[in-house]
Amino acid sequence: MNIVLDGMGGDYAPHEMVKGAVQAAELIEDDIYIVGKEDMIQAELNKMGYQGEQIHIVNAQEVITMEDSPVKAIRRKSDSSMVVGLNMIKEGTGDVFVSGGNTGALVVGSRLILGRIEGIDRPVLASVYPCMGKEPSILVDAGASSEAKAHNLLEYGLMGSIFMEHVWGRSNPRVGLVNLGVEESKGTSMTKDAFKKLKKAPVNFVGNVEAREVPRGACDVIVCDGFVGNVILKLTEGVAMSILELVKSKLMASIKSKMAALMLKPQLKSLKKEFDYEEYGGAPILGVDGPVLKIHGSSTANAVRNAIIKSVPYSKENVVEIIRQSMLELEEVIEKDEEEYSINE
């Protein structure tokens, strides 16, 4: 299996990208292709004393920055690490692409270069969402599309369920729809319609989920449009950081509290780790015709390593093909429902 890494994507590229690749190579047997400026990447490998055979360099002299317009960058920077990497997936020389670059450009590039899976209207960014004392959930959509229709939310739920089952090993994952209340009658006309569609879909739909229940692990797959999803994600990050900072300030307030902090150090470290995005790997862009993982722009080697490791089951479990087949089956169900509705009407 060939894992393709965007060596120039991210705030700390190429150093942290290369370092993460070297760390991952010690834990997996698959080949890693780092795409980017060859001289810079080779210099980093030399600094780290890497002499193995798993890591390869694919030269690409252009870089898509965080300030670039997504569409223009993908179309004009054909020799960028992101475009070259995505083309490797399209051509079959790479099996999965990992990037910490411009999110908008990666979503646009994935759609333009790889194309959408037949039946998918809008690809979705599925971000890992930490839950208190429980296994993490995934949030779909975390920001790929700020607006969505009911059938988009249906697609999100189906794709998220497949990813959770085959990559995270979650049996019969619970799918929940973010809403104002748990009652079926709550929400906008769009969410009400989405509720009806998800209820009939081949997923373990548990109904509406209020935002306050999301961090408590009310479901394994959290379904919402990209605007709501991005707000939930960033609000959670902000609250988590604020609480940790508040706890830290209280524990440092006196000698007694400092002694207590020393005793609680392992627990506090574990708590911080639970909310650290770097521990969970990347966020897949589901719905495009090839495996793509997005990692945070400020990722360090730890996040890069974990994303590379997580990319292995994403590719080997044939998630893209499973989504493709599931969409064909879903279309049959939708057509049948429409026929029954027409007859009853």
Automatic annotation (TrEMBL):
Q: In which pathway does it act?
A: Lipid metabolism; phospholipid metabolism
User: Which keywords does this chain's UniProt record carry?
Assistant: Acyltransferase, Cytoplasm, Lipid biosynthesis, Lipid metabolism, Phospholipid biosynthesis, Phospholipid metabolism, Transferase
Does the keyword Acyltransferase belong to this entry?
yes
Gene Ontology cellular-component terms listed: cytoplasm
- List, in alphabetical order, the Gene Ontology terms for molecular function in this entry: phosphate:acyl-[acyl carrier protein] acyltransferase activity
Q: This protein's superkingdom? A: Bacteria
Q: Which GO terms describe its biological process?
A: fatty acid biosynthetic process; phospholipid biosynthetic process
This enzyme catalyses: a fatty acyl-[ACP] + phosphate = an acyl phosphate + holo-[ACP]
- Do you know which InterPro entries this protein is assigned to? FA_synthesis (IPR003664), Phospholipid_synth_PlsX-like (IPR012281)
Q: Where in the cell is it found?
A: Cytoplasm
Q: Which Enzyme Commission number(s) are on file for it?
A: 2.3.1.274
Q: How does it assemble?
A: Homodimer. Probably interacts with PlsY.
Described purpose of this protein according to its UniProt entry: Catalyzes the reversible formation of acyl-phosphate (acyl-PO(4)) from acyl-[acyl-carrier-protein] (acyl-ACP). This enzyme utilizes acyl-ACP as fatty acyl donor, but not acyl-CoA.
Protein family according to the UniProt entry? Belongs to the PlsX family.
Protein name (Swiss-Prot/TrEMBL): Phosphate acyltransferase
From what organism does this protein derive?
Answer: Lentihominibacter faecis
Its lineage reads: Bacteria, Bacillati, Bacillota, Clostridia, Peptostreptococcales
Q: Give the encoding gene's name.
A: plsX
